[in-house]
Amino acid sequence: MTLAASCPRCSSPVSGDGAQWRCLDHGAITPLWRPATASYEAMAEHLLQCTSIPTLLPWPLSPGWTITDFGCVGHQDGEAKASISSCSGVSDLDGVVELTVVAEEPGVGLGARCAGIDRTDPGAEIGEGPPHVKVRVSGHPISLWSVSTSETSSEFDRSVFAGEAQGRWLWIVLRPASAALLLNDEWILCDANELGPELIELPFGGNPPPW
Ligand SMILES: [Zn+2]
Fold first, then answer.
1. For residue 64, how far is its CA from the centre of ligand 1 (angstroms)?
2. For a 10 Å CB count at each end of the chain, is N or C smaller?
3. Per-residue pLDDT tens over the stretch 150-187
4. DSSP SS3 for 109
5. What is the CA(169)–ligand 1 centre distance, in A?
6. Confidence (pTM)
């Protein structure tokens, strides 16, 4: 067992077991299961648990990039409500870049936490005007809109995009904010569940994002 339970919306301590978990701040929660360190073994365990929701990775991963974190929101015997993956690498323009992808059912709040906004779900900006970018998920183009993070007191250190894919929210968070320029219509997100032998060759490691 390499995955540990935490709160999807904050870093406060959690307690519980089975289908009963509580966060000190949020009360009853559906836990987020994350590894202490990203590894192939932990990913294999994660994918066994996270079968009902895709774990999306940018594909192919750019040379030198590593998968730094991943997780699944759900009770251990139940359906997953959300998935998260983070990877990191170096770009010429921005130095170290962190990319996080969240797929989640409405109301989970994991994407909003990564985005650093107080709301649980994206707001009215989704669907307003033409999309800022499209990415391909399982062969389908998914429209994404920039999510305003100006209401938050946290420093403006990230760019956030969100849209809707297969009835769930899809969030993409890039740090630093200038790394948003890396995002373009050529991007493909693949479901780690659909990777075969390529999964073994994925590079894991590096610093997970600080949420
Ligand atoms: Zn919490």
1. 34
2. N
3. 766 556 789 999 999 989 999 999 999 999 999 988 89
4. coil
5. 20
6. 0.95
